[in-house]
Design the sequence.
């Protein structure tokens, strides 16, 4: 395992080295002393595993492809934003816009995520073991957001086709977001997501409620003018 | 953008390190606000005295001015000259006389007053501003600092934060208010005066007005949620208190950390990484529209 000390190495050097990893390389890297710096392990495209010891700043593991990035601490804004594939695991809390615009892959947050978690998500799966803040899954287009705790105000505002599963309370639903029946196929899909996050045995899929789009807003219809 | 730092000590043995810790926090956030910087430090009280922080233009000759002021006060003012700012400690009964004497030198402004608060701000890179005033050597119980990237008004010393509109009160702001003109008019009707067109000064004035009307720090910040419209993360200081408030949609970033020895605020976690014991601190993001405050007793 290679260790990179960010007290001695710049973020640019670290990221440039990570970008040079060959696509078949299944390497393990350890990053120490992140000290809240921004853009750590951004833009990876290799099946490597990067473990970061400490709290990270903004956009950690952004645009990730195939790599596994583990943060042994909390993450600042936009962790795993625009992730394409791979896996990002935050062992602490995540700040705003976790997983924003993500197209694929799995983001697991052990603690809470604050506002706008999964904003404009486009296919990413996000599992938050704690709660999420207001306006989570705003304009979410595809993918799954699973929340074991509670959701803040305006969950799923202006949502398209993403699916939201929340075990706790929802403070309020956003425009055009409604509760939908939890059928067996949804429970089965949720079980797969929880399995991928490694918590299927600890959590009962029967405790979740499902939310999604009422599909009234995203195709403009003159009868809905009052809702805009 | 802008950057905010705040440090409130619970453990008195850290008092002598307050300036050094705050300075490191402020310098880390240089790139969030390279236009100008400022800070308020709550230092030791001199019994029977009111501290006035005075500001003059670059290269002002403080010596004859301070000699004159000492004559008016009839006693030593324990003055500390720090570049363009000087702090004098005026006996309470001489305050009116001394203030009157200061107005006769138009280059000198009173920029802050209080039993414990001293306030310093200038345009320029925050690390240089901290250096000019010798922040790293200052001592006290709590301090609040700001690095500014101006959006709503000009890059001037008066436009830099913190803003102070009452004794021992200061406020720093990241964001922009949208109803400050209306609130300013109301406050002026209630007898407050403002030095600038700046939105943040209105928030500071609102705090002063509420506290003057007898509200607690907690009540003041709670009332601000209804009265002020716009984007804001505020950090405020009073003689014995330290408060944090974010707007209901949490537009501007904020991180807090707390240990048995201190409570700290940073716009980004980066600002907190050198605080003693931060590795084991409780680190969290303050919730939107929730009042946080700490008081020393």
Sequence:
């Amino acid at each position: 395992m290679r260790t990179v000390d960010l007290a001695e190495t710049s973020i640019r050097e670290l990221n440039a080295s990570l970008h040079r990893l060959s696509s078949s390389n299944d390497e393990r890297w350890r990053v120490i002393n992140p000290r809240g710096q921004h853009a750590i392990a951004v833009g990876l495209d290799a099946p490597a595993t990067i473990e970061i010891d400490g709290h990270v700043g903004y956009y950690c593991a952004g645009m990730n492809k195939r790599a596994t990035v583990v943060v042994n601490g909390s993450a600042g804004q936009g962790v795993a934003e625009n992730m394409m594939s791979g896996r990002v695991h935050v062992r602490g809390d995540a700040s705003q816009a976790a997983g924003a615009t993500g197209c694929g892959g799995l983001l697991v947050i052990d603690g809470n995520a604050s506002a706008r978690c999964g904003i404009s998500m486009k296919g990413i799966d996000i599992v938050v073991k704690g709660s999420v803040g207001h306006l989570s899954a705003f304009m979410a287009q595809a993918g799954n957001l699973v929340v074991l705790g509670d959701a803040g105000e305006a969950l799923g505002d202006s949502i398209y086709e993403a699916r939201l599963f929340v075990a706790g309370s929802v403070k309020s639903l956003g425009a055009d977001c409604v509760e939908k029946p939890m059928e067996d196929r949804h429970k089965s899909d949720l079980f797969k997501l929880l399995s991928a996050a490694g918590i299927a045995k600890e959590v009962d899929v029967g405790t979740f409620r499902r939310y999604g789009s009422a599909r009234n807003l995203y195709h403009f219809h003159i009868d809905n003018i009052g809702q805009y | 953008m802008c950057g905010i730092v705040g440090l409130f000590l619970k453990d008195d043995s850290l008092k002598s390190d307050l300036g050094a810790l705050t300075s490191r926090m402020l310098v880390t956030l240089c790139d969030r606000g390279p236009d100008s910087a400022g800070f308020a430090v709550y230092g030791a009280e001199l019994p029977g005295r009111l501290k006035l922080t005075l500001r003059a233009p670059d290269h002002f000759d403080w010596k004859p001015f301070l000699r004159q002021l000492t004559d008016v006060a009839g006693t030593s003012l324990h003055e500390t000259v720090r570049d363009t700012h000087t702090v004098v400690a005026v006996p309470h009964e001489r305050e009116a006389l001394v203030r009157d004497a200061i107005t006769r030198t138009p280059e000198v402004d009173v920029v802050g007053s209080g039993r414990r608060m001293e306030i310093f701000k200038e345009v320029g890179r925050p690390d240089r501003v901290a250096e000019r005033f010798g922040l790293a050597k200052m001592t006290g119980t709590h301090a609040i600092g700001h690095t500014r990237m101006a959006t709503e008004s000009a890059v001037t010393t008066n436009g830099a934060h913190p803003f102070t509109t009452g004794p021992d009160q200061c406020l720093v702001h990241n964001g922009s208010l949208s109803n400050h003109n209306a609130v300013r008019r109301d406050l002026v009707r209630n007898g407050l005066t403002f030095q600038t067109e700046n939105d943040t000064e209105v928030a500071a004035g609102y705090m002063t007005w509420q506290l003057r009307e007898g509200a607690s720090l907690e009540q003041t910040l709670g009332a601000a949620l209804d009265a002020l419209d716009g984007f804001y993360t505020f950090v405020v200081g009073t003689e014995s208190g330290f408060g944090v408030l974010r707007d209901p949609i949490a537009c501007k970033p904020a991180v807090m950390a707390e240990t048995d020895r201190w409570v700290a605020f940073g716009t980004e976690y980066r600002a907190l990484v050198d605080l003693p014991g931060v590795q084991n601190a409780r680190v969290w993001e303050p919730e939107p529209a929730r009042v946080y405050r700490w008081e020393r007793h």
Summary: Chain A has two domains: 1-92, 112-228. The mean pLDDT of chain A is 96.
